[in-house]
Amino acid sequence: MAARMSAHPLTLYNSMTRCLERFTPLDPAKGVRVYSCGPTVYNYAHLGNLRAYVFTDTLSRVLRWKGYALTHVINITDVGHLTSDADAGDDKMEAAARAQSKSIWDVAAHYTAAFKQNIADLNISEPSRWAVATDHIPQMIAFAEKIAPQHCYELDSGLYFDSSTVPDYGRLAGNQDDEREGRIDPVAGKRHPQDFAIWRKSPPGEQRQMEWDSPWGKGAPGWHLECSVMSLQYLGAPFDIHTGGIDHREIHHPNEIAQNQAFCGCGDSGARFWMHNNFLVDRQGKMSKSKGGFTTLQSLIDAGVHPLAYRLMCLQAHYRSELEFTAENLSAALTRLKRLVMAISVLKAQREISQQSRASFVYSERLDKALSDDLNTPKALSVLDELVSDKALIAYDRMDLVREFDAVLGLNLLGLTREALRLAPKSATLTAEDVESRLTERREARAAKDFARSDAIRDELTAAGVEVMDGDPLGWDWKPAL
Ligand code: AMP
Ligand code: ZN
């Protein structure tokens, strides 16, 4: 993608200061360095998790579009994340392996592959590096050894970080000390409720599937340690932007920051910007893996919904707003995507010579303005809608602009076709060709005024899960019923 000199300075919301701030790279020679907390691979990612990566992808695409060289790291958490973000409960990976009677390594490999498939289906660009937690155990031990003398204490259950040893612990979370003090603390002997495990010792006489020798005995690293160590190793400290879902603003990221401060022996949090996407919620509240009953991307694909409709649904909301997942929202996004793809297919068919009119530059400028304003994708989409139907611009120039918009929106607008958008539901009993030929028969029956026959065909299609759309303005004719 060609670098562009953009007119609008990029402003991003920094959760640390709770303000919009002008973004410039810390060290222009190093480009922009971004770290995103990755999935815990004990189960399939749910649609809420995937919203977090649509957000980071938008950020990455905007940075590249603005001409920055980008180094982006996403980690894969395959050890250390307990069933509670604090130090309570079981290791999620151990628990999943036990429940599925598989080795942890098989569980991790299976769900990592499924996650990468989700990323590909959503047209999310691969990061520069996937950093797998269990590949970095010696580095984690070395990091812990360095901070332990001044910042940690040992209990029977592990090595704990003393949160009172760093300045301003929990600033990112808004210092909700009162709430924290009231939290029921499951670990006996901790000095403060917000102290957290750096290293969890294996219980005596019990062998865990994943455990390593350390100066504190056999055990496994704490989850927060992973991200401090891997971001430091691949991006240095401080780096530019650290991202995650908004839940990480409360415990995981404040703990990473405390470790980073301990390691550098300074007040620096480790990243210049801390950015968080809001939740995808359903009518029962925040979508989460541990609640069960979540919806995966594959379940949408199986129902015949193109995965990029979900991407579009995410982009229709600002990343800092809560987004409700409903069949209606998804269906509306799918219709909008179809409308765009159909309009673009008309543009593609035109053969003209570019005129590069002034109006073209105005659209580019409006795109830049929207995205520079803390990644305002809903606004960018509304400018795109205007653009595709703007008759003041010749088709060639509109296509050129669509290409530019899509570099940041990632909807594959030039590649998608009507046929590609129409996925067959897994349960479909009719192929697309079957449906098309029944509809041709139905048109013939109607032309012959044989309405009984036409209704019977419609009923047959309805029973097969096909919704007939007479007079659809997009000429879509039918779709799988959601
Ligand atoms: P996990 O696999 O649980 O470590 O989560 C992966 C990412 O998804 C993290 O950045 C979480 O903060 C984020 N996340 C979890 N639940 C949701 C949700 N319902 N909506 C948006 N992001 C979420
Ligand atoms: Zn993390």
Describe the protein in words.
The protein is an alpha/beta fold and 482 residues long. It has 3 domains: 11-148 and 223-291, HUPs (Rossmann fold, 3-Layer(aba) Sandwich), CATH 3.40.50.620; 303-419, no CATH class; 427-480, no CATH class. It contains 16 helices and 16 strands. Strands 5-4-3-10-11 form a 5-stranded parallel sheet, sandwiched between helices. A hairpin with a 4-residue loop joins strand 1 and strand 2 (19-22). Helix 2 crosses helix 3, helix 11 (358-372) packs parallel to helix 13 (395-409) and helix 12 (377-388) runs antiparallel to helix 13 (395-409). The longest helix has 23 residues, at 327-349. The model has no long low-confidence stretch (mean pLDDT 91). Bound molecules: adenosine monophosphate and zinc ion. Zinc ion binds at residues 37, 227, 252.
